[in-house]
Every structure is written in structure tokens, then in C-alpha cells.
Amino acid sequence: MIESGVTKAATVARIIPRVNAWGVTGTPVKDSVEDLRGLLLFLRHHTDSFRELFGQISMRHTKRLVRNEITIPPQKRYVITMPFTAVEEQHYQTLFEQMAESCGLNTLGEPLSEDWDPEDPAVLEAMRTALDRLRQTALHPEVGHRNRRALGHRNGPMRTVAEVLEAMIEQSEISMRSDQRAFLSIRLTRGQLLENSPRVKEALAIWEEVLESSNSIVSECRDQLKLELEQAQPAKSSNAQAQEDEDEDDLDEAMAGRVGDARRRLRSALEIQHKAVFFIASAHYQIKVNEDWTKPDSEEFQKLEKLEVDGYNLAKKLRKEILKESHRKAARSMQDIADSALGQTFVVIPEFKSLPESGIESRSIIEELQDLGEALNDQANQLDDWREHLVQLLLKPLVDEEDQDKEITGEEFEESTKLQEELVVYVQAVRTTIADRQDALSGQVNELVRHETIVSVRQAKDGLGPFPEKLLELLQTLATTLEQEMDRFTTAMNARVEYYRQLQAVSDMLESYSGPKTDVAMNALIADEEQLRKKLGQAESKHRYLIHLKEADSKADEQRMCVICQSTFTVGVLTVCGHQFCKDCIMLWFKAHHTCPVCKRRLQASNLHDITLKPQELRVHTEMAGPTSAQDAHRSPGSKKSTIYSEFSSEKLEEIKNIDLDGPAFTTKIDNLVRHLLWLRESDPGSKSIIFSQYHDFLNVLAMAFGRYRIGFTSFDKPNGPTRFKEDPGIECFLLHARAHASGLNLVNASHVFLCEPLVNTALELQAIARVHRIGQEQETTVWLYIVDGTVEESIYNLSVQRRMEHMGRTQNEKSKQSTPELLDVNLEAANSIELEHASLSKLMSKGKTAGEAVDKGDLWDCLFGHVVRSRSVDEDRLRNDPTVRGFLAAEAAEERRKNQPLHLVHGL
């Protein structure tokens, strides 16, 4: 309360009379000595006396100074790297591409535009957001609200890898269908530029190609809808048509889910098919009436006329199918009202009868009731007329019901506007009378209807709103009915309005192209079309790969065989037709043949999707002290190993990996962490562990996993969490996040610390380790750092190690050419002390409860793309030194030189 020295509480505390003042704090200094200012002011010591005061009452000790006086068991540090599963790898790489693009960079970290400014605040914010999301995704695809929203799962428990794959497939299909629609739509538009001109036959050819593609898409969407319906209602008939026509409340509820999505995809595909059919019929008409191409009454003329008529009939049939759902809802509401009208089941409003005369004292009351009854009877009579007229309006047939042979003109919505406006007016008037009657009978005012009435009257007086004259006329009298009956009228009216709105939207799609029909416009459309073609090819390849993962049950550790070289591979390519090859082979093949080696399907570059099938194995990560870049790493192979993280037995790693887990997988990191804890339960009975992460959301996922596998845990946020961890032998883990105010927390009963992700700010890591590696610890402690290979975690880890190695280099005796473990441990402690001294602990975390650590703008690029650049450099060196590649390049160079030689030298002349 008083440590800031400037708050109102601190000001009041300073003026309270006292004999002795006590300032109690567990951590008086968090960031710098400035933290002591508030305490000194409270104790009435001037800040100028700081040096003299603390020189008398305090002493400073470091582990280095008192190393020989205290005994703290040694600490071992291990870093374990692991690969993603194929599903996680696909999701991460897709997100990495999206995040790089949002930063204005490609996947190599190179700017996409010349005016890219690394100091631009918007760019820096985008890079921070990208880094945060990628770090969260390396833990679990749904850690962080942005990642959950991106997967369409804002609330509810975290999903397993299989469930995430289902979400990825669904999103991929939505994206692919959207790209298909955009591609076919722009082709339809390009055809419109050629119609009503001598090039109409070119337009016809384009539209026929679009129709062929749309027929295939519609067929796929129909099959998918049929499958979703069967899964949603397994007890119903397997006949798809019967299911689609059924009037079932269950389907209405399912519309919000997968069945609804399937219906919307089918409708979108039908709209493109409808446009293509209509435009083709129009092209047949244009060719038919052109006497230069077709002689009147000739056989060709008759053929074109038949194609035209058949096309327009098919277009009308498709239009009805597009409007089927809205028509069904409108027809159902209208039928409900028609049944009531036929059976006279509308609510009957009883007539108020005259009351008998009474005494002198009650006569005035009776007269008032008599007047009220007469007014209510008048309302009832007026309402009967309104209801009858309203029913007649609602039961008027919809367009396409009046005349089955009548073609739409594109003006249906305009023609029905007056009818719909009259419906709105009558509905508003009846709602007003309902509210007035309720007020008269019960004294309760319906404020919503009252407000709507005031707004409607104001608009009518201003000449606005629907049918203003009629509204003023109707609102001069009152009527009544029941709210439930009024809701039925309103529902029917809204259903009719929605039907006409959709009908007008379908009609608008068939409007002629109104833009410029110049060569510039045509070239622009062709360029956009080619770009969309490439985008669609990539989307189809990605979707095919996700389906492939689902069919293979996401078994990324299976041995994959390349058809070309007949060898296994980890980095390969999957074609849109579903065949996979190692990347080197297919790239060499693609230079000479643009077809699939297996099925001979024509392929483009966008139809090839890169896949990574890494073996699911744990590896110990060892760092080299000295090299600070990828270039130095391969030039100094003799550098001594880092002492920050030690080696770990490969046999023990294999034991951890071989532990079987029942149930679906969460993620690579979570599953391996669970296996590790179960392994410790057997290899180090009774041991306790601290699980540290900067993200509280990830600890919630771990809690779910620990609950499934019966691993006891508690946390700083739970009541008596630290006490239970110390006293309850069934509690094996303590979940600790970076935002927990745990600077004074003592957990020396724990002997293992698991760092779920590497950190740029080493001080956060050291704060977690310090909970166990401190005075009072009686057993050897171990730190385990988990890293996912090929992610930003690798970049962050390299950056963190590099900095501490630099600090160690400054603290080492330059004259000493040999290092003992004790000396290296001292140097590491000194390096850690430097990190803590340079860190402001209160500023290490970003703003926001769910955000991660704060990363300096100078480190953002290295964290995002450092591992990519390093991996690329290593790959280039490997390929450069590969004898096969060197031989291939030499042959290519010789062939190029031969081509460039003069002709007489080639023939030896």
C-alpha cells in the first residue's frame, strides 16, 4: 500500500502519529533501489541518507561470495527437443505463413514491399502478436484467445489433436469453397465482357467450363449434405430427398451446426451453377438471333432454341432449389395461418355485455365500465376487419406459385414492396392495439410497443416509413388481439419478406455486366483469375493433405515411401491427387514433366503441398559455446560444449517415449510431459515437480491432462496451494505461471523444475528455478526445458543461450585455458546474476492477463525467423557438400557451357 510513496494511502500513512513505525515486506526490492523510496518516506528517512543508512544496517551476499559457507546440492539442467506431429506441424506452418504475411514479410523474414519499416509501430505490434500466437501454438493450438477464435472455439474445454484436425479440415473446406466461388465468379464475369459481341462464342466456351466445374462442386456438396443428414438423424430414412423435404424441428436445431454449414455450402454452389446455366442459355439466344451465324428456321436454329429453352427451364429449377429453404419456412407459416382460417380457430374476443343498473353510489362506476366495454367492443369489431385483411395479405401466393410457366423479370422484389409495406403497417397497428388493450385492462404498459408506435407515427408525419397515410388512418382507432396470434402473423410476414429478399438477390446475380469492356479491364480480370487459380490450387492441395492425415489417423511416425526413388523420407510433397513423394525427387521430375508420376494428372506448382513427416523421437539438445551464428557453427566444430544444459542418457529418453498413454493425444509437448512425470513416478518415487509456463491458459490444459492421467497437482491460484504441495504426498506437481507473485515462494521440497517453453527474459526462468534451488534445499535438483523443434522456440532458446554464454565469457578468466565444472558453475551463476540485475521483473510481462513475456523490439525478428535462417544455412551447406548434388550441378554447368559455345567449336571445326 505504501511502497509507491505517491498513493493516497501512502500519504495518509505518513501523517499518522506513531512512536515506532514498522514496514514489513518480503521483497523490498523488485526492480531497482527506487523501490525503497516509499518505505523510506514512510519511516521518515530522507532519500539523501540512503547510502549512509543502508551502509550501516545491511550487508550484501551473493552465492559466489558465500559459496564456501553454505551447502546447496548441485543442479542439473537438461533441454529436450521434440518434433510436432503431422497435424500440429501443418497447423503451425499455416499459422507461421499467415503471421509472417501479417508482418509484411515472407517465411524467410524478407520484406514483401520496399517501403517496409521495422520501426513502424504497427509492424512491431504485428510482430509481437505473431510471436505470441506462435509460442502459444507450440504449446497447444488453442492456447490464447486469438488462437481459440481462429479455430472457431471461443469457449469450452481445450480440444485434442484429433478434434483440432477436424476443425482444420472444416476451416480448410470453407476456405477452399470460398476460393472456388471467387474463381468461378470471376470467370463468369470475364465471359460477360464478351457477350453481346462478335466474341459471344468465346463467352459460351468459358461459361460451359464453369458449368462443368460447378456441376462437380454441387455433386460433392450434395453428397456431403446427405452424409451430414444421416449422421444427424441416424434413425430417419436414408433417402436424402425425403430427409431434405421433411418438416422437422430437429433439422432446424441442427441448422446451427454441421448440417446448416453443409446446406449453405450447397446453396453457394447452386448459385454459381444457376448463373452459369442462365448465361449459357442467354449465349444460345444471342447466337440464335445472329443471322450471320444462324439462318432462321434452320436445323441449327431449332437446336439453339431448344438449348435456350432447356437452359432457362433448368435455371428456373435451380432457382427454386436455391430458394427452397426460405420458401419452405414461408409456406409453413402461411399454411399454419390458412389452417386456422379454415377451421376458424383464431381467438374469439368476447363481447362486453351491458351491466344492470345499480344503486346511486355505484352508478358512476357502472357508467364508466359501460363506456369502457363499448370501447373495447368497438376495438373487437375493428380488429376482426384488420385480422381478416391481414390474413388475406399473408395468404397471397408467392412468386413462382402464381404461374408455373412465368419467368422471373428481376423486378419481383419491387413489385411486392407495396404488399410487404402494407403488411408491416397492419402488423404495427395491431401490435399497438394489443398494447393499448392490455393497458386498459391491467394497467401494465408495454414500453417496447409504445416506443415502436411513437417512432412509426413520427416517421409517418414526416412522410417516411411504409404507407404513412394508411398508418395515420389505422392508428385513429384501436383494436385488440392476443400476443401469441400476433407473433404468428409477424413470423409469416418475416418469412415472406426473407423469401422475396433472397429472390431479389438471385435475380441481381443475373444482371448484365455494367463495367468497362476494354482490353485493360479484360487483362485485369485475366490477371486476377490467374492469381485466384493459384490460390485455389494451394487450398485444394492443403485440404487434400488434411484429409490424408485424417485417413492415416495422424500416424506421422509411419515409414513413407517415395514412388520415384523407392526410399523413405521425412520432407516430401503431396499432390492434389493424393500421391506423395520425397521433395528432391518430385522437384526434379516437375522440371521436366508437369504431371503426376503415378496417375499422370496435369499439375501446376500450386497443386504441390509440402509435408513434413518427422520421426516422433525425443532428443537432447546440446549447444556449442563460442559460435553465435549459423555461419560460425559449422566453422568451429571443436568448440567446447555449453554448461548451461547437460547431456541426458538416450536410454532414459527411450524409456520416457515408450510409456503408453490411454486416450486421444493432446499435443506433443503435453503428452511427453505427462510421460515424463509418469516416468519420474517410477524412477524417482516421492519426488515433486514444479511446472512453469508464462501462459496461464496452458496450465489449464495441463490440469485437464493431469486429471485424465491421475497426476496430483495444485497451483498458486488454488486455496492453500503451496501448503498442500508441501504437506500432501499425493500432490506431485505445482503449476506456476509467470504472472504469479511468487518471488518469495519457498518450494524446496520439489526436486524437478519443468520449463514448458524457453524464455527470452532469462530472469523469468531463473525466478522459477529459484523456488527450489535456494538455501534449505537438501537434494539434487533438475531443470528440464522442453522445446519443439523447428519453431520459434528454437530461435528463442538460441538467443537466450547466446546471451548467457556472452555473460559467461566476460566473467571467465581469459588466461585460463582449462575449465573445471566448479569454475564453470561459478561462471554460470555470475551470468545468471547479470541477467537478474539487468532485468526489471515488473516489466518482463506484456500488458494483458493472457499475454506472454515482453520482448524487446530488437529481438523480435531473431525470435520469429532465427531458426528458419539457421536451418536454411545448414541445409545449403549439406546440399553443397552432397556428392550427388555437386555432380548434378556440375553436369548442369557443363551443359550450360556447351550451349553457350560457338557452333564451330561444338563440332570441332
TrEMBL record:
Residues in Helicase C-terminal domain copies: 672-824
Lineage: superkingdom: Eukaryota
Keywords on record: ATP-binding, Helicase, Hydrolase, Metal-binding, Nucleotide-binding, Zinc, Zinc-finger
GO biological process: DNA damage response; protein polyubiquitination
Domain RING-type, chain residue ranges per copy: 562-600
SMART domains: RING (SM00184)
InterPro entries with a match to the protein in the record: ATP-helicase/E3_Ub-Ligase (IPR052583), C144_05_dom (IPR059033), Helicase_C-like (IPR001650), P-loop_NTPase (IPR027417), SNF2/RAD54-like_C (IPR049730), Znf_RING (IPR001841), Znf_RING/FYVE/PHD (IPR013083), Znf_RING_CS (IPR017907)
GO cellular component, one term: nucleus
Region (Disordered): 231-252
Record Gene3D superfamilies: P-loop containing nucleotide triphosphate hydrolases (3.40.50.300), Zinc/RING finger domain, C3HC4 (zinc finger) (3.30.40.10)
Residue stretches of biased makeup (Acidic residues): 243-252
A molecular-function term among this protein's GO annotations: hydrolase activity
UniProt xrefs under Pfam families: Ferritin_C144_05, Helicase_C, zf-RING_2
PANTHER family named in the record: E3 UBIQUITIN-PROTEIN LIGASE SHPRH, E3 UBIQUITIN-PROTEIN LIGASE SHPRH FAMILY MEMBER
Name of protein: Putative snf2 family helicase protein
